[in-house]
Amino acid sequence: MKLSFTEKTSYGVGALGKDMACGIVNTFLMFYFTDVVGLAPAFLGVLFMVARIWDAVNDPMAGWLIDNTRSHIGKFRPWILAGTLSNTLVLIVLFSNPGIRGAGQYVFYSVIYILWGMTYTLEDISYWSMIPALADTESERNTISVIPRVFAAFGNIAVGSLGLALVSAFGKVAPGALPTQAQQSRGFFWLAVLIGVVFVITNTVTVLFVKEKVVVRNEKKFRFRDIFTTISQNDQLVVIVAAMTLYTLAINLTASLGLYWFKYDVGDERMYGTFYLTAGAQVLAMLVFPLFAKVLSRRRVFIVSALLPILGYVSLYIVGKTLGNNIAMMAIAGVVLFFGFGFSLVLTSVMLADAVDYGEWKLGSRSESIVFSMQTFMVKFAMAIAGLVTGVGLAAFGFVANAEQSAASLTGIRVLMFGVPIALLLASLAIYLKGYRLNGAYFQNIKDELEKRRAANA
User: Which domains does the chain have, with CATH numbers?
Assistant: First the structure.
C-alpha cells in the first residue's frame, strides 16, 4: 500500500507551516519575553514548567478525543484544521505586545501561552498520528516520515535563519543599526502574522488532499481511563518517551540558548541567523535516512544520531573559545551537530509508529493519537524544561538583559549551551540501548501476527 507523490507532498507540506509556528515560539519566545517585553527570566522558567504540567494531562486527553472521533473525512483531518485555525489566532495574540504593565502583563502572557500550547496540541497530535494510518510497511513509513520532517526542517531553518532579519525589516530598522525594543515588538508581531498565513495555507492543503489508508476499527470507543493504560502498559512507548524527551531537551536548549550565546559571548547576535543556516544539514540527514536505514540497523542509526551532536557541541565550543567569531569553522561544527539532530527527528516518528503496532499487538486495541500525543508532549515538555533551565539558570548566574555580562553569567551560558546537552544526549543513548526492542526479527514477528489477527477479524 503506497501513497501517490501528490499525497505524500500534500501531507508533508503541512509540517512546513506547523513547524514555522512552533519555531518562532521555540527559538524566539524566551528572547522576546525577556529582551522585548521585559518579563523576568525566573518567572518565565516557572511559567513554562507549569504549562507543561498541564500538558501532561491535556495532551493525552487530546489524543483520546481524536481517537474517539468518527467523521466522513476521518478522525485526524477535522482536528488538523481546527487546531491550525485556533493556534494561528493565539500565536498572533502571543506576539501582539498590547502594552499591559504590572501584574496584568504577567497574567496576560501566562494565559495566552497556555492557550497556545493547548491549541497547538490539537493540530500536532492529529497531524503526526496519521503516519501509521497512511502506511503499514517499514519502508513506506520510513519514506513518509522523512517527507514531513524535511518540510518541518525547512520551516524551522527559515524562521531561525531569517527571523531576526524579517523582524528588522518589519520593524523598519535602518541598515546596520541595532533595533529598538519598539521596533522589535512591531517586527515580531508581523512575523507572527506571516507565519500564521503560511500555517493556514499549508495545512489546508493537507486536509484537502490526504486520506487515511490503514483503517483499523476498534470495537469500542476508548474510555477516559484507557489513556493511562494505553501509555503505561506500552513499555516500548515509555522507553521512547524517556529517551527522546532527553534528546529533544538537548535540541531545545541549543535553540533557547543559542541567541544568548551569540549576542553576549560571541558578541554579535546577527551571526545567529547565519549560523542557523547550518541547520540545513538536518534536511540532508532526513533525505539520506532511508538509505542509512537499509544499510545499518535502526539501532546503529540511533547511535550515530546521538554521537554526532556530541562531536558537534565539542567542536563548536572549541571554535567559540579559540577562534572567536570565525563563522566558517562554526558552520562546520553546526553541520555535524544538526546532521545528527536530523536523524533523531525521523527516528522519533518511525519509532512511535512502530509503538502503535506494538500497542495493538500487546493490548488488543489500536490508538494512533494517544501514542502520538506523546510526541507533542515530548516537544512541549522539552521546550518547557529548556525555558525553565534557561530562565532560572540565567537568573542564577546573574544575567542582565541588554547589558555586558559578568564572567559568571558567561560561564553559565556556556555550561547550559554545551555541557548540559552533551550529558542529556549520553543519557538518552543509554536509555535507548538498554530498553528499546522493536528491531529485527522480534518486531517482524509482531507485524506478522498482527496481519493474521486483522485477516481473521476481517
Answer: 8-210+224-457 (1.20.1250.20)
